Amino acid sequence: MSETQTETQTETAAEREAALGGIGCDKQRKEDARFIRGQGNYVDDIKLPNMVFGDFVRSPHAHARIKSIDAEKAKAVPGVIAVLTADDLKPLNLHWMPTLAGDTQAVLADEKVHFQNQEVAFVIAEDRYAAADGIQLVEVEYEELPVLIDPKAALEDDAPILREDVKDNDEVGQGPRRHPNHIFNWQSGDKDATDRAFDGAAVTVMEEMFYQRVHPAPIETCGCVASMDPVGGRLTLYGTFQAPHVVRTVVSLISGLAESNIRVVSPDVGGGFGNKVGPYPGYVCAVVGSIVLGRPVKWIESRIDNISTTAFARDYHMSCELAADKDGRITGLRANVLADHGAFNTHAQPMKWPAGFFNIVTGSYDIPAAHVTVDGVYTNKAPGGVAYRCSFRVAEAAYLIERMLDVLAQKVGVDKAEIRLRNFIKAEQFPYQSCLGWEYDSGDYTTALKQAMAAVGYDDLRKEQAEKRARGELMGIGIATFTEIVGAGPSRNCDILGIKMFESCEIRVHPTGSAIARLGTKSTGQGHETTYAQIIASEIGIPSDLITVEEGDTDTAPYGLGTYGSRTTPVGAAAAVRAGRKIREKAKKIAAHMLEVSESDLEWDVDRFTVKGVPDLSATMKDIAMAAYSNLPEGLEPGLEVVDYYDPPNMTYPFGAYICVVDIDRHTGEVSVRKFYALDDCGTRINPMIIEGQVHGGLTEAFAIAMGQEIVYDEIGNVLGASLLDYFLPTAVETPHWETDFTVTPSPHHPIGAKGVGESPNVGGVPALSNAIVDAFAHLDVTHMPMPHTAWRVWQTCHELGIDK
Amino acid sequence: MAKTEIKLTVNGQEVAGTVEPRTLLIHFLREQLNLTGAHIGCETSHCGACTVDLNGKSVKSCTVFAVQADGGKLLTVEGMAQGGELHPLQAAFAEDHGLQCGYCTPGMLIRAQRLLQENPDPSEEEIRWGISGNLCRCTGYQNIVKAIRNAAQAMRQKEAAE
Questions:
Q1: What is the C-alpha to C-alpha distance for residues A653 and A753, in angstroms, rounded to an integer?
Q2: Helices then strands (H, E): number in chain A?
Q3: Which one of A398, A661, A676, B106 is CB 3.0 to 4.6 Å from B77, fit for a cystine?
Q4: B30 touches chain A (CB under 8 A)
Q5: Closest CB from B31, B77, B137 relative to A219
């Protein structure tokens, strides 16, 4: 054998394992080298020869008929090349486009506008300044129509009809509807069993909660560069896409171009958080512009465009009832939701799930009967309903159940930790079948909460709170013991446009012992180039530093459904593991040939195959890699390369126990987060440093939502506050210090037991903060306070209670 | 629109350009000089992704006209590493996981280098105030603050040794 073998034999297995930089180590991120030097390559950094710039004329009205559009003056502006309107797109049948929710969305307003800032015309110019000049001079004449902002009013008999294009349709993609402004009704659970639980209940509680309209607002807005090669007939579309392969399929379906003639590239993406999953009118207009002009067209959103038009989240008007016995053990749950989807149903989630996985609403609790209904409605607001740093509608569900546990605890007179311990699904009940149809894979909620309570000194905090209450001071302790459902998902119930929600990984090992892996997911900051390399290193015994990871180019990466809903680790990482194992299977055949033994005589040892009982006789992966190209057994094809497509058997169910302590100034309503402790269990941990970083970030987004974010409309549909002047993104000053902790309960069905973590802190953080604030007022019989908990709103509560003086 | 000639020093190099009076500094840097490190994240001076150092001050280059930089001395993230060696802040950001998507990072780094010149030994609170004009959606700032503290310490040690 080679000299390297002799050299490395002096190292112990543990040393060799450490040298791999595999699963479980705090490996520094590979992608940072370019980012810290300002050498990232984001979409607005792309500059192609002859590139032009497009931007939108947008509607000032929320609901109006377009009487005329006159673009002549705009076309006369120096530098303006073309102005596209719906009439220009009609011959191509591109003035409307399908949404991922089975609805249609106007690309450019067709006869009517349905929300403020809707796209009306697309001005293409030599540069962004000329485009801005042109936009000012497009003259649009509108006839204003009655505006619907309140989703409850939208369903009244005499409500104005918003979507005249679908008013006579029995359905708009997601089941029967009962009113022209109604989109769908979705139900889950056993209504009769739930009614029976309530009939005999010793205790019932009911609360109405509104999870306000918010926006993911990554620091990089959405954008693209479309480049049609008029000679070769091939379109390249660079863009801020969390799901580039889906974008390619959608572009093919709506443009008629063969998928082989479309290359979609997601370069570096500056945060996504759900904002960059779906297709937007800007992409279509850039593509059309490039086809028409034969020049590359760039479109980049402004911040106001971003917050006011692409991908809002939440806007769920929820009511919930719990039935319980006298000790607070829950026997039934009822939830009804009115979901405001805005002007077009453009939520981006598995198509069979119009309300996402909202039926995870029974949370971490063993609830025998439940029934939920969700009705989606149209209003004159921006379209969407995306999952902002959460799996689909899980944030809404977790907020609801975690708040309701507190409401119940106050009614029964039980401590808020104790009510959870009484109702938890027990560790021995897993896999657990929820009454709303989910099979929870693994969990140990009691251990997690007890560890959290010990870490913060829970009993002492409650004593301190009692003392402070006696002195008239406001201190709140919030608990959230949430369960997520992530990793969409099994092909039996998850698809987008009929395409099953699998993930894929291709690994190619090079002759000299390094490798490249390509995947169908797409990092928007999570560090996939590092963590996938770590996973594959542990599987194939090649150091992670020698494994290049590539994503986001549909010409090279195998098909995948993308990164959102925390699906990269549950689905993409599983594909990476399985691809690695396939590499190892072939490597074993080659090793047997090299060592002149049978495969059954070999065992895997970190980075090599060793002959059982003869530790000196081994073949390293480095040597096997060369042999794969130079010294193969008869009949085995050359090369060392595989692809794996992974269809997960189940979702994964990460969970956590968060405890938050707040002090509130009763004179001003200002909330100070004194302590925030977050224990997360995401199963097997791939890179603890990256996990902790994601928890910090997710908690900060939770803080933003709970404490300040809200997109408000006035009665005529003006969006109030769509710039960063008004829309709350916390700075380092407001952001609390985060304490992190963990337990590890591996997923039994995932190849390495990992569950995904990026969204847990946002899902669990919001109710932990909200619960802490309401808890500060619990002794004054306050059971609920609406988000966001700005000082003004909290002061109003103080004022109504007469404690602000 | 009439155009104006401007001359300035960018990362130690003298550069010249022809701009409209309304051309924003960020567009001049990104589109004429191909310095794409500084990014655009808003148009209201809030996010700080476009932060560069102009004549010894941190400025938001999306609300500075290029003509205002005429004759000035500009430092961008591309000029932080010297002679192939990373600035201690760059090294600390990677070491302490002070970045995720990387979009705010160039602005954050260039702001932090000015902060450490103004205050070589800032407390956590002073760092948090010092970077409060720069927004990050990924990290929750905690590791950024840690990185700046560690870089400050490394810089002080280096200076003491010299």
A1: 11
A2: 21, 35
A3: B106
A4: yes
A5: B137
* pLDDT value of residue A456: 98
Nearest chain B residue (CA) to A525: B101
- Confirm if A768 and A659 have CB atoms less than 8 A apart: yes
pLDDT, residue A77, reads 98
**What is residue A601's predicted lDDT score, i.e. its pLDDT?**
98
Tokens of residue A87, six digits: 């009439």
Contact call for B41 and A700, based on CB within 8 A: no
Spatial separation of the C-alpha atoms in residues A470 and A477, rounded to whole Å: 16
Q: What residue in A sits closest to B133 (Cα-Cα)?
A: A731
Q: Are A486 and A573 within 8 A, CB to CB? A: no
Examine the domain organization and report whether B102 and B61 are in the same domain. no
Which helix (H) or strand (E) segment is A454 a member of?
Answer: helix A445-456
Task: Answer for the pair A443, A425: CB distance below 8 angstroms, yes or no.
Answer: yes
Contacts of B103 in chain A (CB under 8 A): 40, 42, 218-220, 270-271, 525
pLDDT tens by residue, A295-318:
999 999 999 999 999 999 999 999
Of chain B residues 51-70, which have a CB less than 8 A from chain A? Answer: none
Model confidence over A596-650: pLDDT tens digits? 999 999 999 999 999 999 999 999 999 999 999 999 999 999 999 999 999 999 9
List, for chain A, all residue ranges whose pLDDT scores fall below the cut of 50. Answer: 1-8
List, for residues A609-621, the tens digit of each pLDDT value.
999 999 999 999 9
Question: A245-263 burial, b for 16+ CB within 10 Å, e for fewer?
Answer: bbbbbbbbebbebeeeebb
| Under 8 Å between Cβ of A404 and A419 | no
Residues B80-114 have pLDDT tens digits of 999 999 999 999 999 999 999 999 999 999 999 99
ipTM of the complex: 0.98
- Counting the structural domains of chain B, the total is 2
Between B38, B41, B131, which is nearest A219 by CB? B41
| DSSP classification of residue A568 | I
Structural element, H or E, at residue A660 = strand A655-664
CA distance B6 to B4: 6
Whole-structure pTM value? 0.97
Domain containing residue B56: 4-79
Pair A30, A51 in one domain? no
B69 and B11 part of one domain: yes
Residues A562 and A599 in one domain: yes
Q: Tell me which chain A residue has its CA closest to the CA of residue B46.
A: A724
Q: What is the CA radius of gyration of chain B?
A: 16
Active site residues of A: 242, 389-390, 759
**Residue A452: other Cβ atoms inside 10 A:** 22
pLDDT reported for residue A310: 94
Q: Residue A519: what pLDDT?
A: 98
